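STRUCTURE:
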Protein backbone atom coordinates (compact mmCIF):
# COMPACT_ATOMS: atom_id res chain seq x y z
CA UNK A 1 0.00 0.00 0.00
CA UNK A 2 1.33 3.41 -0.98
CA UNK A 3 0.66 6.54 1.04
CA UNK A 4 0.66 9.91 -0.63
CA UNK A 5 1.24 13.14 1.23
CA UNK A 6 -0.19 16.44 0.08
CA UNK A 7 2.55 18.66 -1.23
CA UNK A 8 0.60 21.92 -1.12
CA UNK A 9 0.02 23.74 2.12
CA UNK A 10 -3.60 24.18 3.22
CA UNK A 11 -5.36 27.53 3.44
CA UNK A 12 -5.31 29.02 6.95
CA UNK A 13 -8.36 30.90 8.27
CA UNK A 14 -7.36 34.46 9.20
CA UNK A 15 -10.80 35.82 10.08
CA UNK A 16 -14.47 35.04 9.63
CA UNK A 17 -17.53 37.30 9.84
CA UNK A 18 -21.20 36.59 9.32
CA UNK A 19 -24.55 38.36 9.29
CA UNK A 20 -27.72 36.45 10.22
CA UNK A 21 -30.78 36.60 7.91
CA UNK A 22 -31.94 40.20 7.91
CA UNK A 23 -35.09 41.68 6.33
CA UNK A 24 -34.19 44.22 3.67
CA UNK A 25 -37.74 45.56 3.21
CA UNK A 26 -40.08 46.16 6.15
CA UNK A 27 -43.87 46.05 6.52
CA UNK A 28 -44.28 49.82 6.71
CA UNK A 29 -42.85 50.13 3.19
CA UNK A 30 -45.35 49.89 0.36
CA UNK A 31 -44.04 46.83 -1.45
CA UNK A 32 -46.36 44.96 -3.79
CA UNK A 33 -45.23 41.35 -4.13
CA UNK A 34 -46.34 39.02 -6.91
CA UNK A 35 -44.38 35.95 -5.78
CA UNK A 36 -42.00 34.86 -3.05
CA UNK A 37 -39.87 31.75 -3.35
CA UNK A 38 -40.52 29.28 -0.53
CA UNK A 39 -36.84 28.49 0.05
CA UNK A 40 -33.71 30.58 0.36
CA UNK A 41 -31.05 30.54 -2.36
CA UNK A 42 -27.47 30.10 -1.17
CA UNK A 43 -24.30 30.43 -3.24
CA UNK A 44 -20.61 30.41 -2.38
CA UNK A 45 -18.08 32.59 -4.20
CA UNK A 46 -14.29 32.30 -3.87
CA UNK A 47 -12.16 35.33 -4.81
CA UNK A 48 -8.38 35.71 -4.79
CA UNK A 49 -7.04 38.97 -3.33
CA UNK A 50 -4.53 41.04 -5.28
CA UNK A 51 -1.26 41.65 -3.42
CA UNK A 52 -0.87 45.10 -1.79
CA UNK A 53 -4.58 45.89 -1.96
CA UNK A 54 -6.65 47.65 0.69
CA UNK A 55 -8.24 44.96 2.86
CA UNK A 56 -11.49 46.69 3.84
CA UNK A 57 -12.17 47.74 0.26
CA UNK A 58 -11.56 44.22 -1.06
CA UNK A 59 -13.80 42.61 1.57
CA UNK A 60 -16.65 45.01 0.88
CA UNK A 61 -16.25 44.52 -2.87
CA UNK A 62 -16.38 40.75 -2.37
CA UNK A 63 -19.67 40.89 -0.42
CA UNK A 64 -21.23 43.30 -2.94
CA UNK A 65 -20.02 41.10 -5.82
CA UNK A 66 -21.55 38.00 -4.20
CA UNK A 67 -24.87 39.80 -3.72
CA UNK A 68 -24.89 41.06 -7.33
CA UNK A 69 -24.11 37.58 -8.63
CA UNK A 70 -26.91 36.05 -6.56
CA UNK A 71 -29.35 38.73 -7.75
CA UNK A 72 -28.42 38.15 -11.40
CA UNK A 73 -28.96 34.41 -10.90
CA UNK A 74 -32.41 34.79 -9.33
CA UNK A 75 -33.39 37.24 -12.10
CA UNK A 76 -32.98 34.37 -14.56
CA UNK A 77 -35.79 32.61 -12.67
CA UNK A 78 -38.11 35.62 -12.80
CA UNK A 79 -37.41 37.20 -9.40
CA UNK A 80 -36.11 40.78 -9.07
CA UNK A 81 -35.30 41.35 -5.37
CA UNK A 82 -34.19 39.64 -2.17
CA UNK A 83 -36.46 39.99 0.88
CA UNK A 84 -34.07 38.43 3.43
CA UNK A 85 -30.31 38.50 3.07
CA UNK A 86 -27.42 36.99 5.02
CA UNK A 87 -23.76 36.44 4.32
CA UNK A 88 -20.73 34.66 5.73
CA UNK A 89 -17.25 35.91 4.81
CA UNK A 90 -14.04 33.97 5.48
CA UNK A 91 -10.58 35.43 4.92
CA UNK A 92 -7.95 32.77 4.13
CA UNK A 93 -4.16 32.88 3.83
CA UNK A 94 -1.58 30.52 2.36
CA UNK A 95 1.92 31.96 2.53
CA UNK A 96 1.65 35.42 0.99
CA UNK A 97 -1.51 34.57 -0.97
CA UNK A 98 -4.93 35.56 0.33
CA UNK A 99 -8.40 34.42 -0.60
CA UNK A 100 -11.92 35.54 0.32
CA UNK A 101 -14.84 33.12 0.50
CA UNK A 102 -18.32 34.64 0.60
CA UNK A 103 -21.42 32.55 1.13
CA UNK A 104 -24.45 34.71 0.33
CA UNK A 105 -28.04 33.69 1.07
CA UNK A 106 -31.25 35.43 0.05
CA UNK A 107 -35.01 34.88 -0.21
CA UNK A 108 -36.02 35.77 -3.80
CA UNK A 109 -39.25 37.64 -4.56
CA UNK A 110 -40.88 39.34 -7.54
CA UNK A 111 -42.50 42.74 -7.62
CA UNK A 112 -43.99 44.56 -10.64
CA UNK A 113 -42.52 47.88 -9.49
CA UNK A 114 -38.99 49.06 -10.22
CA UNK A 115 -37.05 49.06 -6.93
CA UNK A 116 -33.61 50.54 -6.41
CA UNK A 117 -31.15 47.97 -5.01
CA UNK A 118 -30.06 48.35 -1.41
CA UNK A 119 -26.59 47.60 -0.05
CA UNK A 120 -25.91 44.29 1.71
CA UNK A 121 -26.84 44.38 5.41
CA UNK A 122 -24.38 45.32 8.16
CA UNK A 123 -21.29 46.03 6.05
CA UNK A 124 -19.75 47.82 9.06
CA UNK A 125 -18.95 44.37 10.49
CA UNK A 126 -16.02 44.26 8.06
CA UNK A 127 -14.22 47.31 9.49
CA UNK A 128 -12.29 45.40 12.15
CA UNK A 129 -11.12 42.36 10.21
CA UNK A 130 -7.55 41.09 10.76
CA UNK A 131 -4.93 42.67 8.52
CA UNK A 132 -3.62 40.91 5.45
CA UNK A 133 -0.03 42.05 5.83
CA UNK A 134 1.39 41.18 9.25
CA UNK A 135 4.71 42.85 8.36
CA UNK A 136 5.26 46.39 9.70
CA UNK A 137 4.75 49.16 7.16
CA UNK A 138 7.77 51.17 8.41
CA UNK A 139 11.37 50.19 7.83
CA UNK A 140 12.93 48.56 10.88
CA UNK A 141 16.67 47.97 11.20
CA UNK A 142 18.09 44.66 12.44
CA UNK A 143 18.97 46.16 15.85
CA UNK A 144 15.46 47.60 16.27
CA UNK A 145 13.97 44.32 15.10
CA UNK A 146 15.87 42.38 17.79
CA UNK A 147 14.62 44.80 20.46
CA UNK A 148 11.03 44.47 19.21
CA UNK A 149 11.30 40.70 19.25
CA UNK A 150 12.68 40.77 22.78
CA UNK A 151 9.83 43.03 23.94
CA UNK A 152 7.24 40.77 22.29
CA UNK A 153 8.78 37.68 23.88
CA UNK A 154 8.99 39.29 27.31
CA UNK A 155 5.32 40.29 27.11
CA UNK A 156 4.35 36.75 26.18
CA UNK A 157 6.43 35.33 29.01
CA UNK A 158 4.90 37.73 31.52
CA UNK A 159 1.38 36.93 30.30
CA UNK A 160 2.16 33.20 30.54
CA UNK A 161 3.57 33.59 34.04
CA UNK A 162 0.49 35.52 35.16
CA UNK A 163 -1.73 32.77 33.78
CA UNK A 164 0.34 30.11 35.55
CA UNK A 165 0.17 31.95 38.88
CA UNK A 166 -3.62 32.12 38.72
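SEQUENCE:
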Amino acid sequence: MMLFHRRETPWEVVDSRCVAPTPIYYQNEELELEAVKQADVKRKYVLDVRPHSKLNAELKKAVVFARDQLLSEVRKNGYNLLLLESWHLTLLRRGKLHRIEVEYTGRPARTPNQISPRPPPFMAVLQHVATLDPEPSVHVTKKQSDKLLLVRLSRRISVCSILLKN
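REMARK: Residues 12-131 form one domain.
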